[in-house]
Amino acid sequence: MEERKLNDTVCALATPFGTSALALIRVSGVHAFEKCRRLSRSMDKKVQAGIFPCVWVEDLRGLDGNTIDQVVWTLFSETRSYTGENTVEISCHGNPSIIETILKELALAGCRPALPGEFTYRAFMNDKLDLVQAEAVLSLIESENLMAQRIALQNVHGKLSLRFLEVEQTLIRWLAQVEVSLDFVEEDVPLFSTPKLAAEIRILIAQLRDWVSSYQQGQFLKSGVQVTLVGRPNVGKSSLLNLLLGEEKAIVSEIAGTTRDVVEGHVRFEGSSFHLHDTAGIRATQDSLEKMGVERGRKAQSRADQLVFVYEANEGWREEDQRIFEGLTSAGVLFVGTKRDLKSRETPPPPGPFVEVNSREDVFRAEVLAFIQERVGLKKFDPGAGTVLLQARQADLCEKVSAALVEASKVGDQGLAPEFVAVFLRQALAGVQEILGKRYDDEILDRVFRDFCIGK
Ligand SMILES: Nc1nc2c(ncn2[C@@H]2O[C@H](COP(=O)(O)OP(=O)(O)O)[C@@H](O)[C@H]2O)c(=O)[nH]1
Ligand SMILES: [Mg+2]
User: Fold this and answer.
1) Is residue 250 part of a domain?
2) CATH code for position 252
3) What residues have their beta carbon closer than 5 A to ion ligand 2?
4) 260 CA from centroid of ligand 1 (Å)
5) Which tens digits make up the pLDDT trace of 133-190?
6) Which residues line ligand 1 (CB under 6 A)?
7) pLDDT tens per residue across span 308-325
8) Can you give the residue range of the structural domain that contains 195?
9) CA contacts within 13 A on the Cβ side of 297
10) Most exposed of 113, 173, 192, 267 (fewest Cβ within 10 Å)?
11) Whole-prediction pTM value?
12) Measured in angstroms, how far is the CA atom of residue 14 from the centroid of ligand 1?
């Protein structure tokens, strides 16, 4: 990644490039106002008035004096801006040629195009946000559904940071106790007992582990659940896909081997979001196209969070189904029996949780989706109640912190010298501080900010 500096002025389009009603261009830097003054006749007057934020409508002129667009100017002073630097926001008309011209004028005025996430990076460097909040900004932009957006927004406001700050405080307090007892070791005062501390540490470990496992749920909330339909040909996978999507997306036919490409669709249901993949039925076939379809299906299987094994409820679970089932790799499997309307007798059930449906009846749509939602743990999940991690970095570090604490508690249990406990507590503390961005290096920051869009 190119080097980020803090002493220059950066600019970027913050809205998607294309034709739209309006577009927003951001300029940030200590000298942002000076850089823009030649593009706006009122700039000097507005800056001198010193009232921020400051908003007005005025033509934006090129350095040659020609009018480029009528725009809304908004000035934020460094104390009130997102980045912690003087910031100019230009709302222009969403015409790609206007946008390009304005960006060109800004470059002529001495502004550098911003790198991805550079505005948020500057906010972090200027202590407007900690790293957990910066990542929450990213989550807020990326999140597919309302629940994840709500969590992300709470974390932009600092809710999750507060949790980590509490952990940091606890670790600092323990370290202080341990270190005091080291100082007084000659006086033989039993200031504190390591087994008692070890018990407290275990409570914190349990909490951290909860947070780590919340990440999986967080992923489901943020990016949706990848669901792949598998099973024999002609059991009704494509019909089920169409039922769940509420549209005739995949071709349904009584001819076995119809589906070859993986057919995909997205569906939202009660706050959850599912990406569905319909695949070619699994069977040995001589047809080279169908073979390719079966191969593609296998790939979709390996990417799935959840497999839905489709079988015929009217026929019941068959040996052939069992063989395919045993050939499946990874991911959780649940079962949906189709053609329930044709069922006239009790039939052998599949080897796991199942529902039986008639794919031609709309009422079964909610039933199947609720079933999947519950099986992946999204239904009983209450994001308002606990802590949900939306970023892999945070989950990985929590795991490291809890591993260090496990060591600390082991040493504590053995009643060994406090200095050994202190070593692992310090490791844990370093991990928490890395989560919060109190300790960082370029590599850490690169990893956090590379996923941002330009202009954020
Ligand atoms: N009666 C009835 N027929 C179904 C049902 N689901 C699928 N079918 C029929 O079964 C055949 C195969 O369906 P399709 O969705 O193409 O199966 P796929 O090969 O697994 O994708 C088609 O003729 C469908 O109309 C169902 O729930 N009830
Ligand atoms: Mg099909």
Assistant:
1) yes
2) 3.40.50.300
3) 237-238, 259
4) 16
5) 999 999 999 998 888 899 999 999 999 999 999 999 999 999 998 888 777 666 555 5
6) 233-239, 252-254, 258-259, 281, 338-339, 341-342, 358-360
7) 999 999 999 999 999 999
8) 136-220+387-449
9) 28
10) 173
11) 0.81
12) 47
For the CA of 340, the nearest atom of ligand 1: 27
The best mutation among 245, 359, 363, 368 to test binding of ligand 1, ranked by most ligand atoms within 8 Å of the C-beta, falls on 359
Q: Cα of 359 to ligand 1 centre, how many Å?
A: 8
Going from the C-alpha of 322 to that of each of 205, 283, 351, 430, the distances in angstroms are 41, 13, 9, 50
Same domain for 266 and 360: yes
Å from CA of 240 to ligand 1 middle:
8
Same-domain status, 252 and 363: yes
Task: Domain count for the chain, please give it.
Answer: 3
Whether residues 56 and 181 fall in one domain: no
Q: Which of 314, 301, 300, 306 is nearest to 359 (CA)?
A: 314
